[in-house]
Amino acid sequence: MLDHQVVLDAAKWLQGSALGHFMRESGAWTYAIVNLLHILGVASLFGSVLVLDLRLLGLGRRLPLAPIADATGPVAAAGFALAAITGVGLLVTKATEYVGNPFLALKFPAIALGLANVLLIRRTEAWRDRGRRELLPREDRRLAIMGGLSLACWLTAIAAGRLIAYW
Fold first, then answer.
1. What string of DSSP letters covers the chain?
2. Model pTM?
């Protein structure tokens, strides 16, 4: 567990950064636009992840996995990049207020696990071969488990992110 004072000092540094000052002092529209872009990023990420993970779980099995993955992957990556960049802007606006927020402490590990799961999926032979051959039942099961884990991670991150404001 991180020392509370270390976390508070880091939050003070973030909030006092040039970006923190910019986010607070450039008017209400800046925060509103960054927040809107964050929601767009999260929606793009999760919408893509939802389609792919449901396919991994077996929904729409008649549709080939490769084209679904090829279409949703870049959208998810772009959505994640937008959500991460804008999330930093939202965080630095009032970072010290988030110290001790249990939902923030839940959101970041969920994101980390979601990203680790993506890396693990991409390393499997089944994922690499998804468009070249019929997957074995055990490979389908493994991808289904990873798809379910992915959904759990991203739903947790989204729910925790939303609940941060209510703590």
1. ---HHHHHHHHHHHHHSHHHHHHHHS-HHHHHHHHHHHHHHHHHHHHHHHHHHHHHTTTTTTS-HHHHHHHHHHHHHHHHHHHHHHHHHHHHHSGGGGTT-HHHHHHHHHHHHHHHHHHHHHHSHHHHTTTTSPPPHHHHHHHHHHHHHHHHHHHHHHHHHHHGGG-
2. 0.91
